[in-house]
Design brief:
The complex is a heterodimer.
Chain A lengths: L5 E5 H11 L3 E4 L6 H12 L11 E4 L3 H13 L4 E2 L1 E2 L1 H16 L5 E6 L14 H4 L7 E5 L2 H18 L3 E6 L7 E5 L3 H7 L2 H10 L18 H6 L2 H22 L6 E5 L5 E5 L3 H14 L4 E6 L1 E3 L3 H7 L6 E6 L10 H16 L9 E7 L8 H11 L7 E4 L9 E2 L12 E8 L4 H15 L3 E8 L7 E9 L12 E6 L4 H4 L6 E10 L13 H9 L3 E5 L1 H7 L7 H12 L4 H16 L4 H17 L1 E2 L22 H11 L32 E5 L9 H5 L5 E6 L14 E2 L9 E6 L9 H5 L13 E5 H17 L12 H4 L18 H11 L3 E5 L3 H7 L16 E3 L6 H25 L1 H4 L1 H8 L6 H19 L4 H9 L7 E7 H7 L1 H10 L4 E6 L34 H6 L5 E5 L5 H13 L4 E6 L12 H10 L6 E3 L11 E3 L8 H5 L3 H9 L1 H27 L13
Helix pairs in contact in A: 1-2, 1-6, 3-4, 6-10, 11-14, 12-13, 15-19, 15-20, 19-20, 19-21, 20-21, 27-37, 29-33, 29-35, 31-32, 40-41
Chain B lengths: L4 E3 L2 E3 L3 E3 L8 H10 L4 E7 H17 L22 H13 L4 E6 L9 H7 L4 E5 L11 H18 L4 E5 L6 H10 L4 E4 L5 E5 L4 E5 L6 H13 L6 E5 L5 H10 L1 E6 L1 H6 L3 H15 L5 H4 L16 H13 L9
Parallel strand pairs in B: 3-12, 4-5, 5-6, 6-7, 7-8, 8-11, 11-12
Antiparallel strand pairs in B: 1-2, 9-10
Helix pairs in contact in B: 7-8, 8-10
Classes of the chains: A alpha/beta, B alpha/beta.
Chain lengths: ~1200, ~350
C-alpha cells in the first residue's frame, strides 16, 4: 500500500475518485461547481471502471436535484451503496429527502461543492451558505480544506457513514477547492477496501426493503409517539464523533495523514485562536506559521466534523492558554446575532462551562466574523488582521474581513501589501477563453506535478462572458505542499497571451520586481516596448522586468494551428521561466501532446510538435527602454459620457477591480439599471461586416440573425443626414411604406463579436463577383475609427415610427432592439430570439428568466444587455430560480392583471371626475396594434393629468396603477434544461392555467450553461455528457404535449430556416390572449461546428424534418379552421445530411459506426412517423378544442 | 477457360473488381460482389483531408470553448479515449477480410507529405492485401511547375512504398505532360501497379445561387477510350501491372482494356447503376466473347492491342485524334455521349 501514485487533479476529481469506487448507484443533476463530479463518474462508468466490489457503478442523470435525491433515497432503501454530488440551490432541493434519509439512519455519503445561495443575486462561487442550510437535517457534516483532504475525507465520510449509520454530507469550497488543480496522493483500491469491511455492506443489505423479508418504513405517526420515536436515534448521533475519530485514526495509520475532528495548528501556548473551516483554513494556517515565526502566540482550529458537533472534542482542541477566540463564518445569516459556527462555538463553550469540562484559566472572549462570501479572496493578510483585532482589549464582537464596509463599518482593515509567500514559484497568465491558455496551464501543472518532485497548484479565474472571455491562470510550484488558497499578487512570471490585455487590465501589476514578462505581441522584440502605454512602460522600468515577446498568432498560422496558441505559449513559459531545464521541459510537453492527441491522429500530434519546435526560434528577449517615452496613455475603461453609476461602479468591475468597491457602492437589494452593456465596448471581433449598399436588397436578414444587435437597420428622413460622417453609408429606401426615406445598415464595430452569421444569411451576391456579398467580413482595426463615428451617428438618427411599421422580418428589424451587446457566445443561436422579442414587445415586456445561459448573458454583472428606448421604456427582467421560472412568470401575470383590474375598478369609481368619455375609451381600448398601444399611452397621459387635479385617496391609489392600463407582455424565458426537465412540472401547470403569458423555450437540446449535459430535449444519437455513446431515446415532444391542452398557442420555430415564420409566431403568441409557448431551435457551441453556419444548419434541420416548423393557434377554430398549421414541408433527404456537420453526432459515429447507423435509422423512421402524425393532426377537422385562452 | 490474372503480384480468379467507392461500405454488398465473381475488392478511400481536416476540425470544435467559462470546463463528453484516427477504416478492413476470401485492396487518397502517410502502415497491419494510393490533385497554383508536381507524387509514393511491404498501386489522373515518363519513374520506385485513371469531381454552377456545386457524374463507355489509349501506350514500358478504372460497363469494355494492357478491370458506375450482380453479367459477357473468339485465357489477350503489338500503332497517336474530330463534324446527327 506504500506505493500510492501521485496525481495532479482538481477537488472534484479527488472526491469523485473515491465516491465512484465506493458506490453502486449514483444519481446526479448538473449544477455548478459540482457538475464535474457527476461527469467524471459517468465517464468512468462508461469506460467500464469498477468500484472496489468489482462492479461498474450505475450513473443516472435525473431531472432535478430533488429527483436525484429521491432516486438515491429509493436506491438506499433497496440496499444499494449510493452517492450524489451537488451544490447551492441543488442542495436545497435535496433537503426534504435528506431529512428522510437521516431519519431512517441510512448510510450514505454525498459530496457538496459549497456554493453561495442566490439572494439579492445569484452567484456560482463558493461559500458555506448552502451547507449551512442543512445543519438541521440530521446529516453528519464533514469539511475538507484542500484537494488532498477532499480525497481523504471523502473516504472517511463513506467509511464513517457505514459504521455509524448517520448519512454524511462531505463538503469543500466551490471553485477554490473544487476547481483548484493540485498534486496529491491517490488512495488505492486496497486502501479503500481495508477501511470498508464487507460486513458493513452486509448490514446495509440486511436493512434493505425486500419482498423476501418484508419491512415497512415511512409510516405516519401521531402525537402519542412521534416525539419519543424521534429521540430513539440519539445514541447513533452520540456515537458518531467517536466513530469518525476512530476512522480518522485508522486512516492516519494507513496513509500517514492524520486528521482530527477539530485540528489545532499553532503555538501550544497560544492566546489568540481563530476557528474556521474550508479552504480559508489553509491560508489561515500559512498566516499562523508566519506569525509564529515572527514570535506571536497564535493558533487556529480547523473544524472537520461540523455535525454532529462535539463540544468535548472542541474544548479539547483549544490550548488552555487561549484568551480570545475569533470564529470565522463563510456565510451570512441576516438578522441573527451571529453566524452558525460562531453560535455553535459560543454555545459549546457555555455548555462546557456548565458541564464543568471547560479547560480555560479564564473564560475566553469570543468574537465572530464573516469572510469570503462567494469566493471573495481570503489571504494571510486578512487572517493577520483578525489576530490583530483579537489582540485588542475590546475587539469588535462582530466583523467582516476582506471588504470595505463603509456603511455599517463592520469590516476590519488589513494590510493589502502584506505578502508572506516564499520558496514558491508563482506565475500568472492572462489569456482569452478561446486561445487555450487554461488548458495549456492545466497541462503544465500536470507536467510539473507528475513528472517532477515538485508540488504544483493551479487556479483559474474566468469572467462571465461567453464570447471574448478573459481567463487568468494562477500557477504555483514548489518543493513543499502548497497551502496558498488565494490568488497570486506578486508573480515571478507574468504572461499576457493577448497584447490588448495590457491596456485593459493591470497585467503588469501582478509582476514582482525583477520578474519575467512574456507578451504575445504582433510587434518585433525591438519595437514592442514602444507600443506599450506610458504607464505600463513606467511600471516595467521601475520593477526592472525582463520582457520576452513572441508573435504567437503568426507562429500558429505558419504551423497550421489556426488561432490556437496554447502549445506555443506553453513552450515559451517552459523555455524562459526556468521551472524545468529547457530540454526536459520540451520533451515533457511533447510527451503530453502525444498522450492527449495520440489517439486522435498523427496529424494533430505532428502539428503540435511543429508548433513547439517553431516557438523556440520565434521567442526573443525584448528591448526594454530606459525611460517611458510613449505619448499614449492608458485609455479609460468606459466613455466619459457614461452615467455616474457606470463610471463609478461598473467600470471598476469591467477593469477587474470590483474587489476595491466598498459596500456603499452597491444597491441594497440587488436592483441594477438596465442598458449598461453599451458602455463596455469590448472590441473582441477580429473581423466585422462591411455593407455594400449598392447591391443590398434591404431584407434586414442580417439584423434579424445578429445575436448581439451589432448590425442594425434604420429608415429615416433624408434631412437627418445633414451632419453625417464622411464614411456613413445611406441609400434610398426601396419599399413603399417609408417612401422617400433613407436606409442604412450599420455595424457596431466595438460590440460585434465577428461571428459572421450576418454574412452567412445575406442573400445578395454581386453578379459580377459572386464572392462579394452585400455584407463581407473585413479586419476590424482599420475600420474602427470611422465605424465608431458612424455607429454613434446611426444611434442618434431618430427611431422609426412603430405605428407605421409592418411586422414582418424586414419591419421587425427596423424596430429598436432593447436587448443588445450581451456576453453570449459569438454566433449564439438563442439571442436572436430574445432580441426579436425585445424589438417587437420590449417596451412593454416583463421577463421571468430561468437560470441558465439566458440568465447569465441576460443578467450577469458587470453589465446588463436589456435596455430602454428614448421614452425610458424597455424590458424589466428578473431571474428567480432554475426550477420555478414558469410559475415566477405566471406570478408576474397575476400581479399585472390584478393591477389592471384594480385600476379599472378605481377608474370606474372616479369616472365622473375623470370624465366618462376618457374612462370609456381607456376601458375599451383596442391594444392589438402599435397604433392602439400608442393611443392608449396617450390616454394614460391624459388620465394622469386629470388625476392630478382630483383630490382623493382613490385618485392617489389609481395614479400608482395607471400604467397597467397599457397592455403588458409577460415573457417566460429559459432553455431546454428548464422547460423539458427541472421546470417541466411548473411549466405544465402554467400551460394548464390559460393565463396570458408567453413562454419562449430556447432549445439547444442540451444543458448549455453547465457544459453540455443531456436533457430530455437531446436528440437520439447525439453525444452529450451522460450520453457519451449517443442518446438512445428520442427527444421529448414538448410541443405536442402542449398542443394536447387544446387551448395553448404552440409554435415550433427556427429563425435560420424560416425567419418569416418565426416573426409570425412571435406576433401570434404575444397577441394570443391565453398561454403561448414558442419552442425555438437554438444552435449552440455544444453542437460542435462553426456557428457562422448556424443558420445553414437550421435550414438542414428543417428540410430533413429533424426540426419541423408549425404553429398551433386555438383561435383558428373559431373560423372553423384546423388550429395546427405545418410550416415546413415533408422531410426531404436523410437526417445524415444534417448530423454529419455536427461534432455531437460525429463523435458517436466515430466511436461506433454501426451503433450510430442503428440510432440514425431509428431517428430517420421517427422523423417520418412524427411528420405523418403532425400531418394527420393538421388534417383533422377542427372541433371543440378545450376553449380559447382565458384572458383573466 | 482461364480467366485468372496477376495483379500487383496477387493471383486473382478474374480481372474484374469494384473500384474505390462507397459500394463496399456495406458488408452485405461486399459479399454480393464476391458472389458475383469479383476477383478482388477495392475499398473506398481514406482521404488525407478526412484524416487531417476532420481531426483538426473536430479537435478545434471541442477545444475551442473548453476551459473558458467558469460553469463549463468543456461542452462534450470527455474525449481522451475517443479515437478520431483511421480506426473506423481499419476496423472495416478487418470486417471485410473476415467476410470474404478474395483479396482486399485498401485505398488511401492524398497528395502531400503529411501525418496521414503513417496510416499506410496501419492499413497493412489491419490485413489489407494491397494498397491503392490515389494521388488526386488539381493543379491550381501557377507557381508550381509540372516537375515539382510530379516530384510530389513520387515523394508520396516513395514514402508509402518504404513504409509497407504489401503491394502498392498508384492511381493517377491523365493530366500529366508526360505520363509515360512519370509512370516509368514510379516503376523505378518498385510500385506494383498503376490504375488509370481517377475521375475528378467536376464543379457545376448553380445559376440561382451563383454557387459552384461539386458533382461527380457516373462514367459511361466513352470514358473508356482515353484509358484504352494510355493503357496501350504505357503497357509496353512499365513493369507495374496496370488496372483500368473508368468507363467499363460491359464485357467487351473489359476485354478492350485487357487487350490494351490491363491486368485488372475496376468498375464503379456500372455497379452503382445496375447493382453488384452486374459484375457477374460482365464476367459472363467476357467469357462468352472469349469462347466465341477462341481465347482460352485472359493472359493471351493481355496487351495484344498495346502500342507495341497493335497492328496500327498510329491509331493511338495524334493523327487518330484529328480524324475523330473530323468524323464528329461529318456526323451532324450525332451528339457527344456522356458528360
Amino acid at each position: 500500500m506504500a506505493n500510492r501514485i501521485r496525481i495532479t487533479v482538481d477537488g472534484n476529481e479527488a472526491a469523485a475518485s473515491v465516491a465512484h469506487r465506493l458506490s453502486e448507484v449514483i444519481a446526479i443533476y448538473p449544477i455548478t461547481p459540482s457538475s464535474p463530479m457527476g461527469e467524471f463518474s459517468d465517464e468512468w462508468s462508461a469506460k467500464g471502471q469498477k468500484n472496489i466490489w468489482g462492479t461498474i457503478p450505475q450513473v443516472m442523470e435525473m431531472q432535478s436535484e430533488s429527483g436525484a435525491a429521491g432516486a438515491v433515497h429509493g436506491a438506499l432503501q433497496a440496499g444499494s451503496l449510493c452517492t450524489t454530488f451537488t451544490a447551492s440551490q441543488g442542495l436545497l432541493l435535496m433537503i426534504p429527502n435528506m431529512y428522510k434519509i437521516a431519519g431512517e439512519l441510512t448510510p450514505f455519503a454525498m459530496h457538496v461543492t459549497a456554493r453561495t445561495l442566490a439572494t439579492h443575486a445569484l452567484s456560482i462561487f463558493g461559500d458555506h451558505s448552502d451547507v449551512m442550510a442543512c445543519r438541521q437535517t440530521g446529516f453528519a457534516m464533514l469539511c475538507s480544506n484542500s484537494v488532498q483532504e477532499v480525497h481523504d475525507l471523502a473516504c472517511i465520510a463513506h467509511v464513517a457513514t457505514m459504521r455509524s449509520r448517520i448519512p454524511f454530507l462531505h463538503f469543500f469550497d466551490g471553485f477554490r477547492t473544487s476547481h483548484e488543480v493540485c498534486k496529491m496522493e491517490m488512495l488505492s483500491d486496497d486502501d479503500l477496501r481495508s477501511l470498508v469491511s464487507d460486513d458493513l455492506v452486509a448490514e446495509h443489505r440486511r436493512r434493505a426493503l425486500s419482498p423476501d423479508h418484508p419491512l415497512l418504513r415511512g409510516t405516519a405517526q401521531n402525537p402519542d409517539t412521534f416525539f419519543q420515536a424521534r429521540e430513539a436515534c440519539n445514541g447513533f448521533y452520540d456515537a458518531c464523533p467517536g466513530i469518525v475519530e476512530q476512522v480518522m485514526d485508522e486512516f492516519g495509520k494507513l496513509t500517514g495523514r492524520a486528521y482530527k475532528l477539530f485540528d489545532y495548528v499553532g503555538d501550544p501556548k497560544a492566546e489568540r485562536v481563530i476557528i474556521l473551516m474550508g479552504s480559508g483554513a489553509e491560508a489561515a494556517e500559512e498566516a499562523v506559521q508566519w506569525m509564529m515565526s515572527q514570535g506571536e502566540k497564535v493558533g487556529m482550529i480547523k473544524v472537520r466534523l461540523y455535525r454532529p458537533f462535539s463540544v468535548k472534542h472542541l474544548i479539547a482542541a483549544f490550548p488552555q492558554t487561549v484568551k480570545s477566540i475569533a470564529v470565522l463564518d463563510r456565510t451570512k445569516e441576516p438578522g441573527s446575532h451571529g453566524e452558525p459556527l460562531l453560535l455553535d462555538v459560543l454555545g459549546g463553550l457555555a455548555q462546557a462551562a456548565a458541564a464543568g469540562i471547560s479547560r480555560f484559566a479564564v473564560q475566553p472572549k469570543v468574537i465572530g466574523g464573516r469572510y469570503a462570501l462567494a469566493s471573495k479572496e481570503f489571504t494571510p493578510a486578512m487572517v493577520k488582521a483578525v489576530y490583530d483585532e483579537l489582540a485588542k482589549a475590546n475587539p469588535r464582537p462582530q466583523f467582516t474581513i476582506g471588504i470595505m464596509d463603509d456603511v455599517t463599518h463592520l469590516s476590519l482593515p488589513y494590510d493589502t501589501e502584506l505578502d508572506i509567500e516564499k520558496d514558491v514559484f508563482r506565475a500568472v497568465f492572462f489569456g482569452l477563453g478561446a486561445d487555450g491558455t487554461v488548458g495549456a496551464n492545466k497541462n503544465s501543472i500536470k507536467i510539473i506535478g507528475e513528472e517532477t518532485d515538485n508540488y504544483a497548484q493551479g487556479y483559474f479565474v474566468y469572467d462571465s462572458k461567453k464570447s471574448g472571455a478573459i481567463t487568468i491562470s494562477h500557477l504555483r510550484f514548489g518543493p513543499k505542499p502548497i497551502k496558498s488558497t488565494y490568488l497570486i499578487r506578486q508573480a515571478q512570471f507574468v504572461a499576457s497571451h493577448q497584447f490588448i490585455f495590457l491596456d485593459k487590465y493591470d497585467v503588469v501589476s501582478y509582476a514582482a520586481p525583477g520578474a519575467v514578462l512574456l507578451l504575445n505581441s504582433p510587434y518585433s522584440p525591438e519595437e514592442t516596448f514602444s507600443y506599450l502605454a506610458n504607464e505600463i512602460q513606467q511600471e516595467i522600468i521601475q520593477k526592472k522586468l525582463r520582457m520576452y515577446v513572441i508573435d504567437a498568432y503568426k507562429v500558429a498560422r505558419e504551423m497550421g494551428m489556426g488561432v490556437r496558441i496554447n502549445t506555443i505559449m506553453q513552450t515559451c513559459f517552459f523555455a524562459i521561466s526556468g521551472v524545468l531545464p529547457r530540454e526536459e521541459a520540451i520533451e515533457q510537453i511533447k510527451k503530453a501532446i502525444k498522450k492527449t492527441y495520440g489517439r486522435k491522429g498523427e496529424e494533430v500530434v505532428k502539428k503540435n510538435f511543429a508548433a513547439v519546435d517553431g516557438t523556440l526560434a520565434n521567442l526573443h528577449e525584448a528591448k526594454v527602454g530606459t525611460a517611458a517615452t510613449a505619448t499614449r496613455m492608458l485609455p479609460p475603461t468606459v466613455s466619459d459620457a457614461a452615467p455616474d453609476l457606470v463610471k463609478r461602479v461598473t467600470a471598476k468591475m469591467i477593469a477587474n477591480k470590483g474587489d476595491l468597491l466598498p459596500v456603499s457602492a452597491f444597491p441594497v437589494d440587488g436592483t441594477w439599471p438596465t442598458g449598461t452593456t453599451k458602455w463596455e465596448k469590448r472590441n473582441i471581433a477580429q473581423d466585422i461586416p462591411v455593407w455594400d449598399p449598392a447591391i443590398c436588397i434591404q431584407c434586414n436578414k442580417c439584423s434579424m440573425a445578429c445575436p448581439h444587435a451589432a448590425i442594425r437597420a434604420k429608415v429615416y428622413d433624408p434631412a437627418s443626414l445633414n451632419r453625417a460622417p464622411a464614411t456613413f453609408k445611406a441609400v434610398d429606401y426601396k419599399a413603399t411604406d417609408f417612401k422617400g426615406g433613407k436606409f442604412t445598415i450599420q455595424v457596431a464595430p466595438e460590440d460585434c463579436t465577428g461571428c459572421g452569421m450576418c454574412v452567412t444569411v445575406c442573400p445578395v451576391k454581386d453578379k459580377v463577383n459572386p464572392r462579394h456579398k452585400s455584407l463581407d467580413m473585413a479586419p476590424q482595426a482599420p475600420l474602427l475609427d470611422a465605424e465608431r463615428k458612424n455607429f454613434d451617428f446611426f444611434l442618434a438618427l431618430p427611431e422609426v415610427d412603430r405605428t407605421k411599421v409592418k411586422i414582418d422580418v424586414k419591419g421587425s428589424q427596423l424596430l429598436q432592439p432593447l436587448f443588445e451587446f450581451s456576453g453570449a457566445c459569438a454566433g449564439c443561436g438563442e439571442t436572436p430570439y430574445v432580441k426579436l422579442m425585445s424589438q417587437m414587445f420590449g417596451d412593454r415586456a416583463i421577463i421571468a428568466n430561468a437560470t441558465g445561459c439566458s440568465s447569465i448573458y441576460g443578467g450577469n454583472l458587470p453589465t446588463t444587455p436589456y435596455t430602454t428606448n428614448k421614452d425610458g421604456r424597455g424590458p424589466a427582467w428578473c431571474n428567480s430560480l432554475f426550477e420555478d421560472n414558469a410559475e415566477f412568470g405566471l406570478g408576474m401575470r397575476l400581479a399585472i392583471d390584478k393591477h389592471n383590474e384594480q385600476a379599472k375598478e378605481l377608474m370606474q369609481l372616479l369616472s365622473s371626475q375623470i370624465g366618462d368619455t376618457l374612462v370609456r375609451e381607456l376601458l375599451n381600448a383596442d391594444q392589438s396594434t402599435e397604433a392602439g398601444l400608442a393611443a392608449q399611452r396617450a390616454r394614460v397621459v391624459a388620465l394622469k393629468q386629470k388625476l392630478a387635479t382630483i383630490n382623493s385617496p382613490k385618485a392617489r391609489f389609481l395614479e400608482m396603477l395607471v400604467d397597467y392600463l397599457v397592455k403588458k407582455s409577460v415573457w417566460i424565458l429559459g432553455g431546454d434544461g428548464w422547460a423539458y426537465d427541472i421546470g417541466y412540472g411548473g411549466l405544465d401547470h402554467v400551460l394548464s392555467t390559460g393565463r396570458d403569458v408567453n413562454i419562449l423555450v430556447m432549445d439547444t437540446e442540451v444543458y448549455s450553461n453547465t457544459g453540455g449535459q443531456q436533457s430530455k430535449a437531446t436528440p437520439m444519437g447525439a453525444a452529450a455528457k451522460f450520453a457519451s455513446a449517443g442518446k438512445r431515446t428520442h427527444k421529448k415532444d414538448l410541443g405536442l404535449m402542449a398542443i394536447a391542452y387544446g387551448n395553448v398557442y404552440v409554435a415550433s420555430v427556427a429563425f435560420g430556416a424560416k425567419d418569416m415564420q418565426t416573426v409570425k409566431a412571435f406576433q401570434e403568441a404575444e397577441s394570443y390572449p391565453g398561454t403561448s409557448i414558442i419552442i425555438a431551435y437554438s444552435h449552440c457551441i455544444a453542437h460542435g461546428y462553426d456557428l457562422a453556419l448556424g443558420t445553414e444548419q437550421q435550414k438542414l434541420a428543417v428540410e430533413t424534418g429533424y426540426w419541423p416548423l408549425y404553429r398551433y393557434d386555438p383561435r383558428r377554430t373559431v373560423a372553423g379552421e384546423n388550429p395546427l398549421q405545418l410550416d415546413s414541408g415533408a422531410p426531404k433527404g436523410h437526417i445524415g445530411q444534417f448530423v454529419k456537420n455536427e461534432t455531437r453526432f460525429r463523435m458517436v459515429e466515430q466511436q461506433n459506426p454501426e451503433n450510430f447507423k442503428r440510432l440514425m435509422d431509428t431517428a430517420q423512421a421517427h422523423i417520418g412517423s412524427r411528420y405523418a402524425l403532425y400531418e394527420q393532426l393538421a388534417k383533422v377537422a377542427s372541433g371543440s378544442n378545450g376553449g380559447t385562452g382565458n384572458k383573466a | 477457360m482461364d480467366l485468372s490474372t496477376n495483379y500487383l503480384g496477387l493471383r486473382l480468379a478474374n480481372p474484374l473488381m469494384p473500384g474505390a467507392s462507397p459500394l463496399v461500405d456495406s458488408i452485405d454488398t461486399v459479399k454480393q460482389l464476391e458472389d458475383a465473381g469479383a476477383g478482388a475488392i477495392v475499398m473506398h478511400s481514406l482521404f488525407e483531408e478526412q484524416i487531417a481536416g476532420e481531426q483538426l476540425g473536430t479537435i478545434y470544435q471541442m477545444e475551442m470553448y473548453a476551459n473558458s467559462f467558469a460553469e463549463a470546463q468543456s461542452y462534450f463528453p470527455d474525449a481522451k479515449d475517443f479515437a478520431m484516427g483511421p480506426e473506423q477504416y481499419l476496423e472495416h478492413i478487418r470486417r471485410i477480410k473476415q467476410a470474404v476470401k478474395i483479396p482486399v485492396i485498401a485505398s488511401l487518397n492524398g497528395t502531400t507529405l503529411g501525418g496521414w502517410i503513417d496510416y499506410a502502415k496501419q492499413i497493412a497491419q489491419a490485413g489489407a492485401d494491397a494498397l491503392e494510393l490515389n494521388v488526386y490533385h488539381v493543379a491550381t497554383d501557377p507557381v508550381e511547375t509540372s516537375d515539382q508536381l510530379e516530384q510530389r507524387v513520387l515523394d508520396v509514393a516513395r514514402n508509402i512504398r518504404n513504409s509497407i511491404s504489401i503491394p502498392l498501386s498508384v492511381k493517377l489522373s491523365p493530366f500529366f505532360s508526360s505520363l509515360p515518363n512519370l509512370c516509368c519513374r514510379l516503376d523505378d520506385l518498385k510500385v506494383d501497379g498503376l490504375v488509370l485513371f481517377n475521375r475528378f469531381y467536376q464543379p457545376d454552377i448553380d445559376l440561382e445561387l451563383l454557387e459552384a456545386v461539386p458533382k461527380l457524374a457516373l462514367s459511361d463507355p466513352s470514358d473508356l477510350l482515353l484509358r484504352l489509349r494510355w493503357l496501350a501506350i504505357l503497357s509496353p514500358h512499365v513493369q507495374a501491372s496496370l488496372a483500368v478504372s473508368g468507363g467499363v460497363h460491359s464485357g467487351t469494355d473489359a476485354i478492350k482494356a485487357i487487350m490494351t494492357g490491363a491486368s485488372a478491370v475496376q468498375m464503379v458506375s456500372a455497379l452503382l447503376i445496375h447493382g453488384p450482380a452486374h459484375l457477374g453479367k460482365v464476367l459472363a459477357q467476357m467469357k462468352e466473347w472469349m469462347e466465341q473468339n477462341e481465347y482460352s485465357s485472359v493472359r493471351l489477350m493481355q496487351g495484344s492491342m498495346s502500342l507495341s503489338r497493335c497492328p496500327d500503332a498510329h491509331a493511338f497517336e495524334r493523327a487518330n485524334y484529328m480524324r475523330v474530330l473530323q468524323s464528329w463534324r461529318t456526323s451532324p446527327g450525332a451528339s457527344p455521349a456522356g458528360v
